[in-house]
Amino acid sequence: MQDKVDSILAEITNASAVNQAELEEYRLKFISKKSVIGALFQELKNIPNEQKKDFGIKMNELKQAAQVKFQELIVSANSTNSVESSEHVDLTLPPADGEPGSMHPLNYVRYQIIEVFERIGFNVADGPEIEDDWHNFTALNFPENHPAREMQDTFFIERDPDILLRTHTSNVQTRLMLKQKPPIRSIMPGRVFRNEAISARAHCVFHQVEGLYIDKNVSFVDLKQTLYHFAKEMFGKETKVRYRPSYFPFTEPSAEIDISCQICHGDGCQLCKYTGWVEIAGSGMVDPNVLSNCGIDPEEYTGFAFGMGIERITQLKFRVNDLRLYTENDVRFLKQFRTLH
Question: What is the mean pLDDT of residues 245-255?
């Protein structure tokens, strides 16, 4: 029996492996459950009791030697393969053309929107996505238990019902008015959250760009001309714009902005529901109550606010009909935007 142990130990000591096939051959012969060492362990039952202890020690030493050798062979084989690989690299060859990445369509449109408004004097402001009730609702003229709160299904934090995921980036407007004296001219791009079922037309996470302009003698004409300029810059000079009366708790009067459909150009299609018009934003004059809540004198200052969904603008520019595609990271979808820089 000792001769077998010595013979196997000699094989292990002299073993070599330069590739994966030889490593696997070594593993099967000396490491696996059906290895020659495993077969020797089965013979322990035939050893006299007084010899079992010494033989067991020798078998464990043999098993450990096989495992140590196996690790050495792995390192040696990998090193050999690396050297062989490097020897076949021709450093004089030009580099292979890598496939360049591209900007996500939502980011691309977001930057385009920011660029349009920056050219007419708006700066960019940001704020927290986790917000309290006062900044997200109360300060914006949403009284407690007011039906207007039901317009937006909200994610509340269970441990504190006063804390929530913001439903719009208007919370940034609130914080801006509280810490900055007019004149204020800012846009607020960001991610918002609504407790809605995910479908091709709706998502629980999406992106908005809101705008705020407060100064002396700001009128509805300023609002109309600002959004008229945006629509022409974003969608082209042939784009038609219209304003429809609407209701928002934080603006009065309020209006929704429509543009002529970019797919059918006003003739009527499924996207515009055969009306020739597509809504892109909501807007209005900042309610005096909102100004007062934020410490701004409504007798001295007026202002307007607007908000639009980045997904909707992207849909109109690139004809993307399923909102879920923006967040699924499907490479087949993203590769369609390789030209965006």
Answer: 93
